[in-house]
Specification:
The complex is a heterodimer of chains A (about 325) and B (about 775). Helices cover about 10% and strands about 40% of the residues of chain A. By secondary structure, chain A is mainly beta. Chain B starts with 9 loop residues before the first strand and ends with a strand. The chains are: A mainly beta (about 325), B mainly beta (about 775).
């Protein structure tokens, strides 16, 4: 930046200047971060454990693939159970992709043997692009998520125990997905936005998570493409949600995703959230907007349901999905 | 120079009731040139230690034994008048004082009565409006409120803004009164300027403690601003052309000595100037301005008008203020524009019943409205909100005898709050129209106080204020469980009483004169505040919401103890004091972590209440006369809050907890044409909340925080200089020009206005911290005139 007296003459008002500030952060003890999800769709379900980053802001992302640089925690013992007596011990996904066998019909798989040489499990790699082997993922072996139950997790790590629970609210079916044509103000471009139709269950407070990508995509692709979450509270919804203009999620970079073109297929997943999970997502979304500056509210940690100083969230959600294709129209 | 004072002292015989051997002199004191009343001018019988001062309306009354006196009338910045009088009956004496024009070879000795050693109150300051015109100002805009920030115990909450923290209070605890009408948002252009046009103002007084019993309703300070009354001698005007705003005012008699008017306007074109300079910067290819967006819209106006009419023992005043802001600035929020404005009106009737009883009755109106327009967003809405206040007040001054001055009165205030309404701006907007319930409250108070002199040395002012607060329907009221879940709701009909609060507010201040040059003072102040400002940011935005106390959010209160030592050096050239204060507040609010404040119908669920504590030591030295004048002010203070649910229930510093606060203001009269002013300011850094660490969730990095306001910012300091040029020859002509130029922040210190953390990489896992500063070294120029 060129700095001359002349500039300041011009910038006497507000334009001031912005420059980098060397912020010293205390070297605090890293904390356990949980990304957990149990759904009503077929398992396995994945839990990811990582360590938080302390001692300074993350200045560069080291991963060339675009996946995050979070430090994986691979030596934890994880148990998931529900209030109906179901219990499962999770296994870490600690095999390298090169250790997998390949079968043209079954894809990548690995057989897990016990000490006696018996096959006790078959690990399938559902999406090779996920590189889950060293990223702190654990998966369930036989657990089944059913709406209306409360789910519990217990994590034992280095002599500490972390617990969390979440209730899986039922989810109404999506009646249909629609779309609406809009014209972008700045360049007159036509684009389409999705419209959502469903019957909102009355008599209880419902909270929803809306995703425009499926879970595998959200997990596997760099956040720049895949972080498309938005949340919805039924506080102001009508009993029949008749073509809700879905606010297409909050994106940390403010990159425009709010359009679909002709021929595109809109995918939408509507997930049920507990109130706590809703508050967690609301806080995440708020962080994108709140830089902690003088014009913003005081920033705060996203609330968590993990005990003992853990971070992140263990979520139980029922999901309903729908797709619609926007046809080509020729003038 | 003409040394003969043009004194218009009319002495009339008014009443012949010779009571024992005591007589009363009473009347008003004015500026002889323009007829303005002087507030706080002193009247004293020389050598007798008998004296008084004019009240807020320029009225005084002094009861003394019959006899022969040298009565002096004096006021800061005016020539003292001495009258040799033989007094044997009650007498009206109206006095006109002549402004003193300092010339180089003249040494003016201030009358000792004006010294703060003698003044009863502590923690009080009057801004000398003549002095502030000579001090440096950001962008050349003289601002009486910003000048308060150079006084002890008063901290700038955010650099560049008009937000004040007085003795550890938050900025919603200051009561700005413009001709007795409260101004809810005293800021223009997001606080870069105050709503008070210096051309329209005759006095600015701040009470930091020992509030007179007539004042209440805000915890930290009362800032009493009076509009000029208008010259009742001759028509004249003044104005100025500045870089970002221009002003024009006109005043004059409607009927000489009886009725006068003043009208002042100010308009700011700051956005246009910013755009023009931005574009110019782009044309010159100045790097930092290359991505400048020239669609900024920043403008505001102020209009002040006042008329007064005097007939016999009655004086009528009508004053009005209207101001409005339109604000859109891309680098602050490129998605939303804001509008806000204040309107106030005051109708006042002063009546002199007799030589000892004076009354002031008024009807006051204030309206504050604000709106927020979301532009380029699927939600596309306009949010508007306002609040209105209508008050009736009556105050009486009764000068019982030379030792007792009684003041009593009553007030009734009606407040209407419309906390928010959302309207979609077009048919594709996602937003549904939505109204928050309006709220109504009535505040009523009674007060009585007495200023009593006991012997020659001791003077005590003791008072009691009783305030009552009624929150009225129509409204839906929720009850909450301890974890703030709604457990019940009740509907209250229109006018139905929802909640009643009341409180006795004792006030005490005491002055003990050790000798002519030294005094000790002590005060205790208790105040209730029935309004809360729900504030969304540290700097304060027009979108902050004022709310009355309700069932869940109780009224806030403050207890303050102060003690001080005052000294004037012989000749009264120097004056110094030190004051210590200790202040505790209760039911103060802060928002919980991750609060959802925007248009929340149950906003009380997002707020936590607790207590605050502040203590400090203030030091002040002023040189009052000579070529070089000015002051040094230093405050050492600490302010903490403790609110359960925030910061693990541990006390935490307020954002404006700035340990050291130093101001040096020096004014030097170089010649009859040139004045030089200089300001130096140093304050410790305030506190902000910064992350302890970062965690990843679905590939995106998020920050987590452990302590609220845990990070101390670097200190703030700045040096400014200003030059004022008045051609002495032209000052005798009808058109009197004046040039003012200066340099703000002369050594180019980049003081932090805002520190923020931004995500910097495309995959949302890297951050950078940035600081924003408002002013580098900034020259300015303005042209002012009088005619």
């Amino acid at each position: 930046m060129k700095k001359t007296i002349a500039i300041y003459l011009f910038m006497f008002f507000l334009s001031g200047c912005v420059e980098e500030f060397d912020l010293d952060l205390d070297q605090a003890e890293p904390r356990l971060v949980v990304e957990g999800l149990i759904t009503n769709q077929p398992g396995p379900y994945y839990i990811r454990l990582t360590e938080s980053h302390t001692g300074g802001l993350i200045k560069t992302d080291h991963s060339p693939t675009g996946v995050d640089s979070a430090k994986a925690v691979m030596n934890a013992q994880i148990i998931i159970y529900d209030d109906a007596g179901q219990i499962d011990t999770l296994v870490p996904i600690d095999v390298d992709i090169n250790e997998y066998d390949y079968d043209p019909l079954g894809g990548y798989y690995k057989l897990v043997y016990d000490n006696a040489g018996n096959i006790i499990d078959t690990l399938f790699l559902t999406d090779p692009s996920e590189f889950r082997h060293d990223r702190g993922f654990y998966k369930t072996q036989h657990f089944v998520g059913i709406p209306g139950r409360t789910y519990f997790i217990t994590i034992r790590l280095k002599g500490k125990e972390y617990i969390a629970s979440d209730y899986m609210h039922p989810i109404p079916d999506i009646d249909s997905l629609g779309y609406m044509k809009k014209i972008r103000e700045k360049d007159g471009q036509e684009y389409y936005i999705p419209l959502l139709y469903f019957s909102e269950p009355q008599g209880i407070d419902n909270f929803y998570l809306i995703q425009l990508d499926n879970e595998v995509f959200s997990r596997g692709w760099p956040a720049a493409f895949s972080w498309r979450f938005s949340i919805l509270s039924d506080e102001y919804l009508q009993p029949y949600v008749n073509g809700l203009n879905v606010s297409l999620g909050e994106n940390p970079g403010g990159i425009e995703y709010d359009y679909y073109w002709q021929g595109a297929t809109i995918y939408l997943a509507l997930s049920s959230l507990s109130k706590n999970a809703y508050e967690f997502y609301r806080s995440l979304l708020q962080q994108f907007k709140n830089d902690g500056g003088a014009y913003k509210p005081c920033p705060a940690s996203p609330p968590t349901n993990i005990s003992n100083g853990g971070l992140g969230y263990f979520r139980a959600s029922a999901i309903s999905e729908s797709e619609v294709q926007i046809p080509f129209t020729f003038k | 120079m003409i040394k003969v004072a043009a004194i218009t002292a009319c002495i009339l015989t008014f009443q012949i009731t010779v009571s024992a051997q005591k007589i009363t002199i009473f009347g008003t004191i004015r500026d002889v040139e323009n007829g303005e009343h002087l507030i706080g001018a002193t009247i004293s019988a020389q050598g007798k230690n008998l004296g008084t001062s004019t009240n807020n309306y320029g009225f005084y009354s002094l009861t003394i034994p019959e006899g022969t006196y040298d009565i002096s009338y004096s006021f800061v910045g005016y020539r003292t008048i001495l009258h040799h009088l033989e007094l044997s009956e009650d007498t009206t004496i109206d006095i006109g004082l002549e402004p003193e024009i300092k010339s180089l070879d003249e040494v003016i000795v201030e009358a000792k009565d004006n010294s703060s050693v003698f003044i009863n109150q502590m923690g009080i300051h009057s801004v000398n409006l003549k002095t502030i015109k000579l001090t440096p100002a950001a962008a050349g805009e003289i601002d009486p409120v910003k000048n308060l920030q150079l006084l002890p115990g008063i901290i700038t909450v955010n650099e560049g803004t008009t937000n004040l923290s007085v003795r550890g209070g938050s900025f919603d605890q200051n009561l700005f009164l413009l001709d007795d009408a409260p101004v809810y948002n005293p800021s223009h252009a997001l606080g870069f300027f105050s709503t008070f046009n210096p051309d329209a103002i005759s006095s600015v007084k701040i009470y930091k403690t020992a509030f007179p019993a007539q004042y209440g309703g805000r915890l930290s300070s009362i800032i009493d601003i009076r509009m000029k009354e208008g010259n009742n001698q001759a028509i004249n005007g003044s104005g100025g052309v500045g870089l970002i705003a221009s002003r024009l005012s006109l005043e004059g008699p409607l009927k000489k000595d009886q009725a006068s008017f003043i009208i002042c306007g100010r308009y700011s074109y700051a956005g246009l100037i910013a755009n023009a300079f931005g574009l110019l910067g782009q044309a010159l290819r100045i790097g930092s301005l290359m991505d400048f967006n020239a669609n900024n819209e920043i403008n505001f106006y102020d209009l002040n008008a006042k008329v007064n009419y005097k007939i016999k023992n009655n004086h009528f005043y009508l004053s009005a203020y209207s101001g409005h802001d339109h604000f859109y600035y891309y680098s602050i929020d490129n998605n939303a524009s804001m509008e806000w404005g204040n309107r106030t009106g005051t109708a006042r009737w002063n009546h002199v019943f007799n030589s000892r009883l004076f009354s002031n009755t008024m009807v006051v109106y204030s309206k504050y409205d604000y709106s927020y327009i979301l532009k380029d967003d699927a939600r596309h809405f306009k949010w508007s909100s306002n609040l209105q206040e209508l008050d009736i007040k009556s105050d009486f001054d009764y000068f019982l005898n030379p030792s007792n001055h009684l003041q009593f009165g009553i007030s009734l205030e009606k407040h209407n709050y419309f906390p928010g309404k959302i309207e979609p701006r077009d048919s594709t907007s996602l937003t549904k129209p939505f109204d928050l319930d309006s709220q109504k409250s009535i505040e009523s108070s009674l007060y009585i106080s007495n200023t009593q002199k006991i012997g020659d040395k001791l003077s005590i002012n003791y008072g009691l204020r009783y305030s009552m607060f009624f929150l009225l329907g129509e409204s839906m009221v929720y009850s909450y469980s301890p974890d703030m879940e709604v457990i019940d709701s009740t509907h209250f009909g229109n006018g139905e009483l929802i909640k009643f609060y009341s409180g006795l507010e004792p006030r005490l201040d005491l002055r003990y004169l050790i000798n002519e040059n030294n005094s000790l003072k002590f005060s205790y102040t208790y105040v209730n505040q029935y309004q809360h400002l729900i504030c969304n940011s540290t700097v304060g935005l027009p979108t902050d919401v004022w709310l009355p106390a309700n069932k869940t959010i109780k009224p806030q209160f403050s207890n303050q103890l102060s003690a001080g030592f005052y000294k004037s050096l012989p000749g009264n050239k120097y004056e110094l004091y030190t004051e210590l204060y200790f202040r505790r507040t209760g039911n103060i609010i802060d928002y919980r972590d991750n609060a959802d404040l925007f248009l929340n119908p149950r906003i009380e669920t997002q707020i936590l209440k607790g207590k605050g504590q502040s203590y400090g030591a203030e030091f002040y030295v002023e040189k009052k006369s000579g070529k070089l004048t000015g002051w040094i002010s230093y405050t050492l203070s600490q302010t903490t809050k403790q609110i359960n649910g925030i910061n693990n229930n541990e006390p935490y510093p307020a954002t404006y907890d700035k340990r050291h606060n130093l101001s040096v203001v020096l004014l030097y009269k170089l010649s009859n044409a040139w004045d030089i002013g200089s300001t130096f300011k140093f304050t410790s850094g305030g506190y902000i909340t910064i992350p302890e660490g970062t965690f990843h969730y679905y590939g995106v990095a998020f920050n987590y925080y452990t302590s609220r306001n845990g990070f101390k910012l670097p200190p703030y300091h700045r040096l400014d200089v200003s030059f004022t040029y008045k051609n002495p020859k032209k000052q005798l002509k009808p058109w009197k020009p004046e040039w003012n130029f200066g340099i703000y922040n002369i050594y180019d210190r980049k003081n932090i206005f805002s520190l923020f953390i931004k995500m910097i990489d495309v995959n949302f896992s890297a951050f950078e911290a940035y600081k924003m500063y408002l002013y580098g070294i900034t020259p300015y120029l303005s042209y002012n005139f009088r005619f």
